[in-house]
Amino acid sequence: MANEWSTFGADLHLELRGTRLRAGLMDALREAVRSGRLEAGTRLPSSRSLAADLGMARNTVADAYAELVAEGWLTARQGSGTRVARRAAPRTPALSTPSPPSPPSPPPAGTGRARPGAPVHNLQSGTPDLASFPRAEWLKAYRRALTDAPHEAFGYGDPRGRPELRTALAEYLARARGVHARPERIVICAGFVHGLTLIGEVLRARGVRDVAVESYGLWLHDGLLRRAGLGTPALSFDERGTRTDELSGLDGCGAVLMTAAHQYPLGGALPPDRRAAVVDWARASGGFVLEDDYDGEFRYDRQPVGALQGLDPERVVYFGTASKSLAPGLRLAWMVLPQGLAEEVAAAKGAADWSSSAPDQLAFAEFLRSGAYDRHVRAMRLRYRRRRDQLVAAVAEHSPETRVSGIAAGLHAVLALPPGTEQATLRAAAWRGLAVQGVNRFRRPAVPPTLDGLVVGYATPPDSGWQGALQALCGVLPQGDLTTG
């Protein structure tokens, strides 16, 4: 049989063949996308509308849409409807015989150099589920904050940030992260990078030559410190984490940058004896510990690991951010500073760039005071834990020899790979439309390569793409194979 529908003023013809309506509809949609008749970004009719036009049950159309979303042909987002994906690609076929990942096959002769297309599935770390941003609650907080805001809030104000937000943060951080904070020692900044830039400038002005860093971390942070004129010697690591005992042997080192609660990206928490050791070093040397508590709210399997800052607020600079708990686009982060640094950092911020929107700060203060932030974090903690558990279960089933680590907290996991296979696995992932990062992308240049693995951000994909992303991931793991029931 043949049916057709018209949507948004454009005549689109679907040829539905066979007696299996769902399969026929899926085949017709795939062909329409493959041929270019449905261009990337085209919004499709709702399942209810299309079902009425084609004389099908709504569930039949909804199931077909969901399957095509999982395969990567379509995307679905609340409020935006179902659309043709920017790069539609067929689902990776299940392998009848498990095999390790291999480099992509060469292109046919005469076709030039082939390249993988744009990613269909994003498993890169560092971004939360943006579709879960609490828009309604945020809008309520924004309205209340603007209604109650004093007139002077729309002026230049204090470079440290709005007092309403600094007061709300001081209470929240003491309760949730064990941070000793007073509002006058908090400086609001436009993200962790902004805060680290300010600290680097202040430390260099104080005569600090080097800021030690962990063996693995974001290369961007090294670059910011180096641009401030600071060296970045890397501390080695072992099975217990970063070797803090090496600090005493670094002449001229005035600070150390650490992710003590959840090392990024390897995932472990710094053991108690090493936490104490790094603070003892700071006291003895007059240095500072720069604590990046980037995802401290998300711990799943045991009691939260408190902030290092609680051990000595006068030697630890605490960095927090809303980028993981809410969204990076808010550009809201904060530093809790020792008394000796607070005025210098505020002066550096005021002299360079104010950077933080007063209405957004007021809204976030209201969001914290109302309890909406706590409710959102609790809900997202449950959501991410389910994602993590599904990831661990899928890997255990389809690649049982792959070890998953760094899963007690945060928004990402590390999947160990056989030595020497990381680059081949990344190439195979790219050809399957999967964006994922290798462990060695985060290795400091001076650190010898000793690990191979994938850093998998399980918070990033929307619900509609999560199963497809898991399928693509398992398809590139050693002896990996993901079939659907």
Residue-averaged pLDDT = 85
Q: What's the count of strands?
A: 19
**N-to-C CA distance:** 29 Å
Q: Which stretches of 5+ consecutive residues score pLDDT under 50?
A: 1-12, 88-114, 480-485
Strand content: 5-15%
Return the CATH architecture of the largest domain: 3-Layer(aba) Sandwich
CATH homology group of the largest domain: Type I PLP-dependent aspartate aminotransferase-like (Major domain)
What does the largest sheet look like? 7 strands, mixed
Query: Approximately how much helix is present in the residues?
Result: 25-40%
Number of domains: 3
Quick summary of this structure?
With 485 residues, the protein is α/β, with parallel strands linked by helices. It has 13 helices and 19 strands. The strands form 6 sheets. The protein has a 7-stranded mixed sheet, with helices on both faces. It has a 4-stranded antiparallel sheet with strand order 15-16-19-18, covered by helices on one side.
Describe the protein.
The chain has 485 residues and is an alpha/beta fold. The protein has three domains: 3-84, Orthogonal Bundle (Arc Repressor Mutant, subunit A); 121-132 and 375-476, Aspartate Aminotransferase, domain 1, CATH 3.90.1150.10; 135-372, Aspartate Aminotransferase, domain 2 (3-Layer(aba) Sandwich), CATH 3.40.640. It has 13 helices and 19 strands. It has helices at residues 21-34, 47-54, 58-71, 135-148, 163-177, 192-205, 219-227, 272-285, 339-352, 358-369, 372-398, 422-431, 463-476; strands at residues 3-7, 10-14, 74-77, 81-84, 121-122, 186-189, 210-214, 234-235, 237-238, 241-242, 253-258, 288-292, 316-321, 333-336, 404-405, 412-416, 434-435, 437-438, 453-457. The strands form six sheets. A seven-stranded mixed sheet has the order 6-14-13-12-11-7-8, with helices on both faces. A four-stranded antiparallel sheet has the order 15-16-19-18, with helices on one face. A two-stranded antiparallel ribbon has the order 1-2. Helix 2 (47-54) packs across helix 3 (58-71) and helix 6 packs parallel to helix 7 (219-227). It is globular and about 80 Å long. Residues 1-12, 88-114 and 480-485 have low confidence and may be disordered. Keywords: Aminotransferase, DNA-binding, Pyridoxal phosphate, Transcription, Transcription regulation, Transferase. It holds the Pfam family GntR. InterPro entries: Aminotransferase_I/II_large, HTH_trans_reg/aminotransferase, PyrdxlP-dep_Trfase, PyrdxlP-dep_Trfase_major, Tscrpt_reg_HTH_GntR, WH-like_DNA-bd_sf, WH_DNA-bd_sf. Residues 98-109 have a biased composition (Pro residues). Residues 79-129 are annotated as: Disordered.
